[in-house]
């Protein structure tokens, strides 16, 4: 039996064959949109993470608010650790019926939160910034509720406490505002 000679091998140019190119890109996952609407340029960017996803437009004043929060948490924490009676008297205007230990524990917890705030100030990741803002808003909400209940039980509204309640309400609004602003999807240009 005679064997038929095979036709000469032809190179397939995937650059010119549009269907082949699209199939290859689809298999590799290149050029398609992911769940966030991001278009990946290469498989490496998918594996390593697309840094453009984290390059967000920050709301005006976000970094300033983060710095103010970190400073505020640090100062109150240090004040609670060093001068617990003074901090308690400033808020409740009475003779110091609060325990020094509980105020110092409060200062230790605030110092831990302030470290988180300082670290969030230097990150560009949306998720970290959002979680920090949410933590801050939750802290202020709990403090607002606890201070209100304590003042209701005591039956007196001191000037320092009313200022604290007003400021905590304002801080909740600011933190929640930035939380939602950071979470918004960027507008495509």
Shape assignment: rod-shaped
Residue fraction in strands: under 5%
The strand count comes to 0
Order of helices and strands: HHHHHHH
Helix content: 55-70%
State the distance separating the first and last CA atoms: 68 Å
Q: Main beta sheet: strand number and arrangement?
A: none
What integer value in Å does the Rg equal? 29 Å
Quickly give the structural class. Answer: mainly alpha
Total DSSP helices = 7
Regions with pLDDT < 50 over 5+ consecutive residues? Answer: none
Question: What's the arrangement of secondary structure elements?
Answer:
Layout: H1 18-28, H2 43-48, H3 62-82, H4 84-92, H5 100-121, H6 126-154, H7 159-183
Helix pairs in contact: 3-4, 3-5, 4-5, 6-7
Q: Can you tell me about this structure?
A:
The protein is mostly helical. It has seven helices and no strands. It has helices spanning 18-28, 43-48, 62-82, 84-92, 100-121, 126-154, 159-183. The protein is rod-shaped.
Brief sketch in words of this structure:
It is built from 7 helices and no strands.
What keyword list fits this structure?
mainly alpha, 7 helices, 189 residues, 0% strand, single chain
């Amino acid at each position: 039996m005679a064997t038929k000679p095979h036709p000469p091998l032809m190179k397939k140019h995937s650059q010119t064959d549009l269907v082949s190119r699209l199939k290859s890109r689809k298999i590799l996952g290149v050029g398609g949109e992911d769940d966030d609407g991001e278009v990946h340029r290469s498989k490496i960017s998918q594996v390593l993470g697309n840094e453009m996803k984290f390059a967000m437009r920050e709301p005006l004043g976000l970094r300033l608010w983060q710095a103010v929060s970190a400073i505020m948490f640090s100062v109150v924490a240090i004040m609670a650790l060093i001068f617990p009676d003074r901090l308690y008297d400033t808020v409740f205007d009475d003779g110091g019926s609060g325990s020094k230990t509980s105020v110092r524990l409060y200062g230790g917890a605030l110092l831990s939160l302030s470290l988180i705030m300082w670290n969030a100030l230097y990150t560009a990741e949306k998720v970290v910034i959002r979680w920090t803002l949410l933590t801050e808003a939750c802290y202020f909400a709990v403090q607002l509720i606890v201070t209100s209940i304590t003042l209701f039980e005591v039956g007196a509204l001191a000037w320092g406490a009313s200022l604290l309640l007003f400021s905590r309400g304002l801080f909740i609004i600011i933190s929640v505002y930035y939380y939602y602003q950071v979470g918004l999807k960027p507008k495509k240009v």
